[in-house]
Amino acid sequence: MTSFQDFGLADPISRALKEENYVTPTPIQAQTIPFALTGRDVIGIAQTGTGKTASFALPILHRLLENRIRPQPKTCRVLVLSPTRELSGQILDSFNAYGRHVRLSSALAIGGVPMGRQVRSLMQGVDVLVATPGRLLDLVQSNGLKLSSVEFLVLDEADRMLDMGFINDIRKVVAKLPIKRQTLFFSATMPKDIAELADSMLRDPARVAVTPVASTAERITQRIMQVDFSAKPAFLTKLLKDEPINRALVFTRTKHGADKVVKSLAKAGIAANAIHGNKSQNHRERTLAAFRSGEIRTLVATDIAARGIDVDGISHVINFDLPNVPETYVHRIGRTARAGAEGIAISLVAGGEELSYLRDIERLIRVALPREDHRTDAGREAAHAKSPAAPHQHRAGRPGSRPQGARPGNARHGDSRHGDSRHGAGRPGDGQKSSNGSRRRRSGGKPNSAPNDRLEQRPAHGAGKPDGIQGVAFLRRESRPNGNPNRKPYSH
């Protein structure tokens, strides 16, 4: 398909697309929409920024128009699940934009805001409900929502929902849905757990895969800056002052690290703001609006909070902390070079474990990234002493170190409890359980078995260190009575 007109969409939808200046569909849209229009289940593999929302919203709107019925009270005809508040809000905005001539009823169910307003919005029933898994289950359990009339189910960013510990909540939701429905399932990657979930939910799905996660946009210039760990704040300040920046998105691993970066930039006279799970929903919305309008040119974010950021004009993505999951790097830098523009991705790498993370990233994207060495002689010596080639030395005092052979997964869960969690103070958000439904914060489970934001909130030995969370996580594991009695504790 070379034009949206080729899909044969209903006239009200075609008019809205013209008003949005949509002319040529992206690859995921061109391949997914024809299958979805026939009512077939679809598995779509595509990374962030490829146009997934339109690929499921347009055919669903078309099919709703073909069968106009009034939703029953406390029900929805379309249920869209996404991992974060920001992404949920953007999906609903897209439905409303494409369906502006359709007289669509819609609602948003997310954490961080009072549930009473959401209950009232569902009283008469809605055509489209976009929700995060935890808040959706809260509504169902409080009898504010019934799922017996769902005709279309969409799971967006399924792999991120797995990372955030929502997979058990998703299974609970699916168990309450009608067997006869159309399911559209989207994920950037397809790990084993996600593949098993898809197999249990979909019937004879069409499989569409575009832009493999290992690829990075050709229009992105990637640069590696090797710097001393202590020099990162000053080096970031210099980058932001020297680079021709339109908008810069700076990534940290933890919420504490994001706030610390913002304070450091403020001292240097650079206006910046942070977005993460500890921020209120109103703050997150105001911050995103200011970033989108250009009022704020520098936004500091954690990975999960940034999952729903879809802002054109981001010229630079800067990894203040290199991610310990290589696919996350691809997601991060995909925030720039959108809509045909070019972009720059800069990573500050302090040696030690971050060098091993860098090697994992290069293996994934199959590119040796150019490196610029800005370290001091002392920094080079320290990095060499702490390198993976000398495990007994670098694990002694390295913030963020982990036991040899452990999976470095806990840090990526560090932004889900407050704000995107069902079980935080006042039940502000969405689910925080592990994939098997249990809580492993004190039970000695695997390091990345469940989100554990308390480690980030009280980084006892890693306080003031952006990657202190991992060190705390494994220090606590050593103190458990069911741990390995022969393993020596790590100092921090």
What can you tell me about this protein's structure?
It is a single chain. The chain is of the alpha/beta class and 492 residues long. It folds into two domains: 4-209, Rossmann fold (3-Layer(aba) Sandwich); 214-492, P-loop containing nucleotide triphosphate hydrolases (Rossmann fold), CATH 3.40.50. The protein has 19 helices and 14 strands. The protein has helices at residues 11-19, 27-37, 52-66, 85-98, 115-121, 133-141, 158-163, 167-175, 192-201, 232-242, 255-267, 281-293, 303-306, 326-333, 353-365, 377-385, 391-397, 453-457, 468-479; strands spanning 42-45, 76-81, 106-109, 126-131, 152-155, 182-187, 206-209, 220-226, 248-251, 273-275, 298-301, 316-319, 343-349, 371-373. The strands form two sheets. A seven-stranded parallel sheet has the order 3-4-2-5-6-1-7, sandwiched between helices. Strands 10-11-9-12-13-8-14 form a seven-stranded parallel sheet, sandwiched between helices. α3 (52-66) crosses α4 and α14 (326-333) crosses α15 (353-365). The chain is globular. Mean pLDDT is 79; it is low at 389-492.
